[in-house]
């Protein structure tokens, strides 16, 4: 069992939880839940009022999916990658379900900033998702950087720390990836 100071590290908590320490899951959820909820709130703020998917539901669904998956989390970076992917999939699945009920027509421009600017239009979410998949085929590392920025809400310095590289390296990769996405969208 780890010391309390060590347990603030998500990697240690994941390892302890996977080794059977139920208390580690509680600590892990307290450590990451608030951040995930803030991200979900920012995503859902851009949605129409009366939206059926609320921030708490998005976070709960993503967190439960992460914790019930048969994934052996390797480290903090692996956890954040999966969390970002899970939130993106939930948003895309929700958008696809809305499109099934109401077909969208034509492509629309998607604006990207440090946080994903996803509007209420499900076509935007799906277009961004498809562009991210294409980027991942072209350059998986750059796609992961953007996913960590947009869907996990990590800063450039946090991503650099997770990868063990300089912030400038992450910034360059992010700029190239964004340029690729702009061209693709």
Automatic annotation (TrEMBL):
Transmembrane segments: none annotated. The keyword Nuclease does not apply. Keywords: Sigma factor, Transcription, Transcription regulation. Residues 8-184 form the RNA polymerase sigma-70 ECF-like HTH domain. It comes from the Bacteria. InterPro entries: HTH_Sigma70_ECF-like, RNA_pol_sigma-70-like, RNA_pol_sigma-70_dom, RNA_pol_sigma70_ECF-like, RNA_pol_sigma_r2, RNA_pol_sigma_r3/r4-like, WH-like_DNA-bd_sf. Belongs to the sigma-70 factor family. ECF subfamily. This is ECF-type sigma factor. It comes from Rheinheimera muenzenbergensis.
């Amino acid at each position: 069992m780890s010391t309390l100071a060590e347990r603030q590290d998500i990697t240690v908590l994941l390892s302890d939880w996977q080794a059977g320490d139920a208390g580690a899951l509680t600590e892990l959820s307290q450590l990451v839940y608030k951040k995930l909820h803030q991200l979900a709130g920012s995503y859902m703020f851009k949605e129409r009022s009366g939206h059926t998917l609320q921030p708490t539901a998005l976070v709960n669904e993503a967190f439960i999916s992460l914790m019930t998956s048969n994934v052996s989390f390797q480290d903090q970076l692996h956890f954040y990658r999966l969390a970002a992917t899970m939130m993106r999939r939930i948003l895309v699945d929700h958008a696809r379900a809305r499109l099934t009920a109401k077909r969208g027509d034509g492509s629309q421009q998607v604006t990207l900033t440090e946080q994903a600017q996803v509007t209420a239009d499900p076509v935007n979410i799906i277009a961004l998702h498809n562009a991210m998949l294409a980027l991942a085929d072209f350059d998986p590392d750059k796609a992961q950087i953007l996913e960590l920025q947009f869907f996990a809400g990590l800063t450039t310095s946090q991503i650099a720390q997770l990868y063990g590289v300089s912030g400038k390296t992450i910034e360059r990769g992010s700029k190239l990836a964004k340029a690729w996405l702009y061209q693709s969208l």
